[in-house]
Design brief:
There is one protein chain. By secondary structure, this protein is an alpha/beta fold. The protein has helices spanning 17-31, 66-69, 79-90, 103-115, 133-153, 162-170, 215-228, 243-252, 269-273, 289-296, 309-312, 327-339, 341-358, 361-375, and strands at residues 2-6, 35-42, 49-52, 55-61, 63-64, 74-75, 94-98, 119-123, 156-159, 179-181, 202-206, 233-237, 259-262, 277-280, 301-304, 320-322. Helix 1 packs across helix 14 (361-375), helix 3 packs across helix 4 (103-115) and helix 4 packs parallel to helix 5.
């Protein structure tokens, strides 16, 4: 079988959940003897064509508009023509597009009409709101036009969580019979707990620095955390349009000695294994790979009680859930876990067991392959 994946972001950057999911599924399909081609966008001037772990990668020149619109957005001029030309040259059996809001996913429905190839689309995000009237209006317009076209053109939809599935049915008018729930996963052979007990008070956020991921909430909670645990160190790992604003927020509160910013890294495992508590105060979430990876490392996670997170975390057993945007509740949960190492350790162990049972990439790749076979 030859599968062609469409994703706006891919190697050498694997920081976001979507591109990690594409990578993990693709390399497992290759190991099972299938051929995988990935079409992606490039704003850095990398090689237009390369191969990694048996995955053929085609990169289209693109322009990032993330800083302009305040949300993740990359576009590629003439991408319809370029994509169609590549598809005709590689001759895949099936196209698999990822993320409703990606440029190449919008292109996929047009390519399907030109090539008549089966199209699978994975939806990674639930209903999105940015509290910016213009941006929210544009998102709704996109959903009702291009979003509906993508859903209608897809022969099969995959939702990574129940909240994403319900969003597809209620807002995108997807047929319940045409959508399958397949969650994201973790490589449990790589993301392992650190054998050494974490005695340092290290609180870590990993994710894109955009409002919906909630890094600003952690900074707001920091004074209360540091009041109880002045020895604590807080790390914010990632890049995004909010970074300058967040650094200014830290400087204004004179917290530079306690809150540290790290750029996106290709390997987050060492960071997770040196962390005491992982924090993800999202405003919206589909299925957070960062949370899954932290749980696989045996970390207690404090996250907001939004759809997506509540599917992964059992409050008080495999993590703690707090109301979104409530920095006081966030600080209280983090402070409680820092003060009660035995409870934090038990929660981390429970989290690891849950990941091993329900969220392994091998099983998820097999289920995805079953979708392809059903269409062929």
């Amino acid at each position: 079988m030859h599968v062609c994946m469409f994703t706006d972001y891919f190697l050498p950057h694997l920081f976001g959940g979507t591109e990690k999911a594409v990578y993990e599924i693709s390399r497992r399909l290759v190991k099972k003897g299938h051929q995988v081609t990935v079409l992606t966008l490039d704003v850095h001037g990398y090689e237009r064509r390369s191969q990694v772990e048996g995955i053929d990668i085609y990169r289209l020149p693109a322009v990032s508009l993330t800083k302009v619109v305040g949300a993740q957005l990359t576009v590629s001029p003439l991408s319809v023509l370029r994509t169609s030309r590549i598809i005709r040259s590689v001759c895949p059996d099936v196209i698999h597009a990822h993320n409703l809001y990606f440029n190449l996913t919008a292109i996929s429905s047009m390519v399907k009409r030109l090539t008549h190839l089966p199209l699978v689309t994975t939806l990674h995000l639930p209903k999105m709101q940015y509290d910016k009237p213009l941006l929210d209006t544009l998102i709704k317009f996109y959903q009702k036009t291009i979003g509906h076209l993508i859903v209608k053109s897809s022969d099969r939809l995959i939702a990574v969580s129940k909240s994403v599935l319900m969003h597809a049915i209620e807002d995108l008018k997807a047929s319940p019979s045409g959508i399958t729930l397949i969650p994201n996963g973790v490589d449990t052979s790589v993301f392992l707990p650190n054998d050494q007990r974490r005695k340092n008070a290290i609180v870590t956020f990993i994710g894109r620095l955009i409002r919906n991921k909630g890094p600003q909430c952690l900074i707001q909670a920091s004074p209360d955390i540091l009041k109880s645990h002045p020895e604590a160190r807080i790390y914010i790992v990632g890049e995004g349009p909010l970074k300058d604003k967040l650094m200014h927020q830290v400087a204004t509160q004179r917290l530079e000695d306690h809150i540290h910013f790290l750029s996106s890294v290709s390997d987050i495992l060492p960071i997770l294994q040196s962390t005491t508590i992982f924090v993800r105060p999202s405003l919206t979430e589909g299925m957070s790979l960062a949370i899954l990876e932290a749980m696989a490392c045996g970390l207690p996670v404090v996250a907001s009680s939004v759809e997506g997170n509540v599917e992964i975390i059992d409050h008080g057993k495999t993590g703690y859930l707090v109301p979104p945007t409530n920095s006081k509740a966030l600080a209280e949960a983090i402070t409680f876990l820092l003060s009660n190492q035995k409870i934090a350790s038990e929660i981390g162990e429970n989290a690891r067991r849950k990941i091993e049972k329900f969220y392994d990439w091998e099983h998820i790749a097999d289920r995805t392959m079953e979708i392809y076979l059903s269409l062929l």
